Amino acid sequence: MATTISARSLATLWITAGLICAPHGLVAQEEQAECVLEASPEATAAATALDEARLLEDPAEARAKFQEAWDAVDGRLREDPAPYILGAQALVGLRQFAQADSLLVQFEVLAPECVEVHARNARYNAWVGLYNEGIQAYQSGDLDAALEAFNTANMMFADARSYNNAGILYEQTGQPELALENYRKAIVAEGDEEQKRNAVLSLASLVAAEGTPDEALPVYERYLEDSPDDVVVRIRYALALTDAGRGAEATGIFEDVLSRDDLTAEQWIEVGVGLFNSEDYASAAMAFGKSRSGNPYGKEAMENYVNAAIQANQMAEALPLADSLVAWYPYDASEYQLLASGLAKSGEDDQALRLLQVSQTTPIIFHSSQMADLGGGQYVIRGVVEAREAVAGQTVTIPFEFVSATGDVLGSENLTLQLPAAGQTETFRLDFQSAVPVAGFRYAKVEGL
């Protein structure tokens, strides 16, 4: 059986980069007429101090104002709801989140008509700051601080993004039960469909890893009851059916999806991955080919198409594209392996051996290089580089080109690398901005390397 392939998006693979920054504020919702809070002297003093605190750039001065706001209402928390909401906002400014949450719970009981107007906004605004703290901590490598920030954010406001991120980090730190708990909460929390889908996929994958493929099926089924046309989840469900020994049911799903003409290039990759991993290589090649029809320069679809076509013995289609991949990505080890595999399967063993020898003497090796669309015309290429002894420690510059779906060159950027020691690897990143959608990239081999 051929090695399975994955269609997880770069944003997930690089978490890792999947952690998504939240907006910096929340537009206040239209006030409901029945929500009226008494403007007592204490409440007025607290509200004034809060307004002043939010205008101060110096953290110590702002903290002093938040303390002033809290002092104005502390000890005056009785049946009047206004001090509770103002006190909670002051405590958020003082980073006393558990106590702030307690006051908000009491406020919600005392003034249920004001929950949407005041309590929800207070919770969400606290969540925003905590969420971005979690992002910053993660990016600096402090996973403990990132988890603490996301967990506190989840206490203040139930949002799928922070639950998903906590789940990812719990998986990374070897705490699968806590990861499962957070993914389950993400599915029912507020959030867009993409976040809920991510939670379903993560939950099902982890359930299967911790138990059996059968145990993942209900996770998909519950989601598909409400979202039956979600192609990504349907394909993952079909793959899980295959793993559970229910291949006939999976085949029906794959055939139904293959007949559609309304899928994006990214969705066709998901379809192809499912078919490939169920060992239907000819249909997988068809799906990857449809992805290439939508985006002929997508590197992932090209690589997957070649892989599936080779397994399906479609050499006339596979070998020319495999040869192009070697030319367009001359340091990517995987491209040499794909072409060598196709040549060997075609009986060209000598050519395959020579190609592998070239690969093994290439001074620079990319173990991966993929592009992600960050939105707003921003694109990023991430990869992993290794250097052989002859060039280890050197600085090299590799020119990259970015192309449109019609093959037009939209621009270029140089990737400058400080190569690691021999046998070591380093990650790299190259950013590019374009007003025209970028379909793919390629890079040139540097003279002498």
In short:
This protein is 58% helix and 12% strand.
Overview of the molecule:
The chain is α+β, with helices and mostly antiparallel strands and 449 residues long. Helix content is 58%, strand content 12%. It is built from 19 helices and 6 strands. The strands form 2 sheets. A 3-stranded antiparallel β-sheet has the order 1-2-5, with no helix packed on it. It has a 3-stranded antiparallel β-sheet with strand order 4-3-6, with no helix packed on it. A hairpin with a 2-residue loop joins strand 1 (364-375) and strand 2 (378-387). Helix 9 runs antiparallel to helix 10 (193-210) and helix 15 (281-294) packs antiparallel against helix 16. The radius of gyration is 27 Å and the shape is elongated. 40% of the residues are buried.
